[in-house]
């Protein structure tokens, strides 16, 4: 939704016309309210982003109107405006110009918003959990081989107290996407969490092997180093944990989470007690 290169391809594919130069197309693209909203979002100017999205929905190119609603949903979700977020998603899903990819991510975002509602309103848990899984199944009707769907369903399964089903979905995501470290990091940490619940040394060994092989394949993945470092820290292997946390921070120096994890690993290694937050 946010990669300008992909958005420009979409734009050029549908905005071609006789007598329109590439430069004119590019200038028109940059003037689009949604494109300006994406820039504002990346700059964390969220009020400006949501205002530009409203303008894009009213007056912008039709092809970007579902995208504009999607960005509004993200912001409303972050601001805990659950009812408004769901209304925006339902409106986006029904838009005739919505792309297949955008439809899929609208379904996943709807499931995400509903999952948050389950956390906040426990008495609705059973009803909402079923609705979450129904929405994820709708996403599968759009693309049954999209690894993001299985990553998300794994999260939902774990939250529902079905860890083995969650691990099955994580394995499926890894099988579908062998070119990304993201499924590996999720499966590795998922295995460790389930191992902690079941006291399975075999699962811990599997997770450890998975992280090592993943880092060998993706040595510059800060996510893998950081997630593996968190696991090693929980296993009280503080020296190894610190090493991987430092590598994650070297790869992504501006990432506050990596900085925090490194500090935590260093304190644990030095046996400095951490004050409760």
Task: Note down, in words, how this protein is organized.
- The protein has helices spanning 4-14, 22-31, 33-42, 46-59, 65-78, 82-93, 100-120, 125-142, 147-159, 163-176, 182-198, 201-217, 222-234, 238-251, 256-269.
- Helix 3 packs antiparallel against helix 4 and helix 6 (82-93) packs antiparallel against helix 7.
- It is globular.
- It is mainly α and 277 residues long.
- The mean pLDDT is 87.
- The protein starts with a helix and ends in an 8-residue tail after the last helix.
- It contains 15 helices and no strands.
The description of the largest β-sheet is: none
Q: Count the helices. How many?
A: 15
- N- to C-terminal distance: 36 Å
**Secondary-structure element order, N to C:** HHHHHHHHHHHHHHH
Bulk shape: globular
Percent of residues in beta strands: under 5%
Report the helical percentage: over 70%
Radius of gyration: 21 Å
Structural class: mainly alpha
Annotation, overall tally of beta strands: 0
Mean pLDDT: 87
User: Which spans have pLDDT < 50 for at least 5 consecutive residues?
Assistant: none
């Amino acid at each position: 939704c946010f990669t300008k290169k992909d958005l420009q391809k979409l734009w050029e594919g549908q905005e071609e016309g006789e007598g329109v130069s590439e430069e004119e197309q590019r200038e028109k693209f940059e003037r689009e309210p949604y494109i300006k909203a994406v820039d504002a979002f990346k700059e964390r100017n969220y009020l400006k982003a949501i205002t530009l999205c409203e303008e894009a929905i009213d007056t912008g190119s039709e092809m970007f109107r579902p995208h504009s609603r999607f960005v509004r949903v993200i912001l409303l979700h972050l601001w805990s405006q659950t009812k408004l977020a769901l209304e925006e998603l339902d409106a986006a899903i029904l838009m005739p110009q919505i792309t297949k990819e955008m439809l899929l991510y609208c379904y996943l975002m709807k499931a995400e918003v509903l999952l948050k509602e389950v956390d906040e309103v426990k008495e609705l848990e059973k009803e909402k959990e079923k609705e979450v899984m129904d929405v994820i199944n709708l996403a599968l009707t759009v693309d049954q081989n999209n690894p993001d769907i299985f990553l998300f369903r794994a999260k939902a399964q774990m939250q529902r107290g079905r860890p083995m089903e969650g691990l099955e979905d994580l394995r499926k995501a890894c099988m579908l996407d062998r070119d990304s470290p993201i499924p590996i990091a999720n499966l590795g940490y998922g295995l460790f969490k389930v191992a902690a619940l079941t006291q399975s040394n075999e699962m811990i060994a599997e997770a450890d092997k998975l992280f090592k092989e993943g880092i060998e394949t993706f040595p510059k993945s800060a996510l893998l180093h950081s997630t593996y470092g968190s696991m090693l820290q929980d296993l009280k292997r503080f020296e190894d944990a610190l090493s991987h946390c430092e590598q994650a921070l070297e790869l992504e120096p501006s990432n506050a989470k990596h900085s925090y994890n490194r500090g935590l690993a260093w304190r644990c290694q030095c046996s400095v007690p951490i004050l409760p937050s």
